[in-house]
Give the backbone structure.
Amino acid sequence: MAKVLINEFAVAGKKVKRTYAIYGGLVPPYTMTFGSDKYIMPGWYKLDKDEDLPNIEDIGYYPYKPKKDNNLKDIDSNKVYKVMSSKGDKEYQVQMNTSGSLECECPGYGFRRRCRHIDQVTSSL
Ligand SMILES: [Zn+2]
């Protein structure tokens, strides 16, 4: 849900100056007049009666960004990634298993459940 944040700074002898920013949500800021009321949208922030509608360009916009918890979502689950061994004489296949994590066919993975081939696939995404 979008939130309107207000920044106020007083200029000596003048009216308090306000700047606005929209945080979250996916709708860029816009302003709206509803009868005699003025709003900053999204977020339904009501401006003071004597306040002018701010310019849209002056309203900050920080849209909601879904946080990626891991980058494995970018992996095509049907794809087999081929990674060369460190000696360069062998090719190992890295593939997503049914539980959604990567598996490698090299002996190191068999022991440690992780290996540099998997690291190479995830870091290349
Ligand atoms: Zn491996």
Q: What stands out?
A: The radius of gyration is 26 Å. Strands lie at 3-10, 16-23, 30-34, 37-41, 45-46, 60-62, 80-84, 91-96, 102-104. The mean pLDDT is 87. The pocket of zinc ion is lined by residues 92, 104, 106, 108-109, 115, 117 (CB under 6 Å).
